[in-house]
Amino acid sequence: MKPENKFLVSEEMRKHGFIDEPVPEGTDLREEIRRMCKEKQAIILAHYYTQGEIQDCADFIGDSLALARKAAETDAKIIVMCGVHFMAETCKILSPEKLVLCPDLNAGCSLADSCKAADLKKYKEEHPGYKVVSYVNTTAAVKALTDVVVTSGNAKRIIDTFPLDEKIIFGPDYNLGSYINEVTGRKMLLWNGGCHVHERFSVSEIMLLKQAHPKALVLAHPECKGPVLAVADVVGSTAVLLKYAVEHPEEEYIVATEAGILHEMKRQCPDTSFYPVPPEISEGSIGCHCNECDYMKMNTMLKIYNCLKYEWPSVEVDAAIAKDAVKPIERMLDLS
């Protein structure tokens, strides 16, 4: 969708995938963003891994699918998805009538990129009779080739609905699939994909933090490697880890997921201590070396301001792909 005629998006802006036009000195970006949201009937969605100031400015914060579903329930005309590209696609799939904006089209996802639709199509053809279960962190084109989508929070529950002898291809996250295989006793075929953030966590860094904070519980996302999950006290989606911390504020926590979640954890549990696990470092240290997603941090307040002002860049999904991509999401909702 092109911006309104009163706005001009240059070819240079299109080439870069975002608008970085400066604003007058002293401009309160948050105030202006909220003003435009009211004026344009727009909402801001922020993933837990975005910068804290973005989460504070958003209408809703959460995990990707939960945000897309929440946006679909509103009467907003414009959705600004502050996350990564596949999340904006999911918003468009569930809200085809709304204008979906992505502050930076370059905000991709290493996990989604690890599974191309053409490669999955070929793999399916090589394994006839197999059901395809895809993690929600995938492109719309991959979802369109999928039988049922899962989240990290409901993956086990969805897999448990299949007969024990069902032939299943699980992708693209190898670590999540391996974890589900372990807890269900299944032998699903696993796509060899991964998240560049969660792959960097290591047991050695967790042990260093445990030495410094022996009473702290370890919270880990199932996208982490098996050895990390083996030393975790709680394994779950970002929302599950947050919920556990909120329900047990008397504890202290070592957190093995993208460090952006600490903003909401600290907001809801201001008297609780949280220690982010750093990426693996050769010499090892307990310093504040947060493990962050570079793609998520591409979202900035200035880019949100400009994308609302220009109503660009927007994310579109081919109608035929969208029609097929929504089916595995609906199937997941039916099963869960």
Describe this structure in words.
By secondary structure, the chain is an alpha/beta fold. Helix content is 41%, strand content 13%. The protein contains 16 helices and 12 strands. The chain has helices spanning 11-16, 29-40, 52-57, 64-73, 85-94, 110-113, 117-126, 140-143, 155-159, 174-184, 203-212, 226-230, 238-247, 261-268, 301-310, 319-335; strands spanning 42-47, 60-62, 78-82, 99-101, 131-135, 148-150, 168-171, 189-190, 217-220, 234-235, 253-256, 274-276. Strands 2-1-3-4 form a 4-stranded parallel sheet, sandwiched between helices. It has a 4-stranded parallel sheet with strand order 6-5-7-8. 47% of the residues are buried. The model is unreliable at 1-6 and 282-288 (pLDDT under 50).
Tell the overall outline. Answer: globular
Give the mean pLDDT: 94
- Proportion of residues in helical segments: 40-55%
What value does the Rg take, in angstroms?
20 Å
Give me the strand/helix succession: HHEHEHEHEHHEHEHEHEHEHEHEHEHH
Low-confidence stretches: 1-6, 282-288
- The share of residues in extended strands comes to 5-15%
Please provide a brief summary of the model.
This protein is an alpha/beta fold and 336 residues long. The protein contains 16 helices and twelve strands.
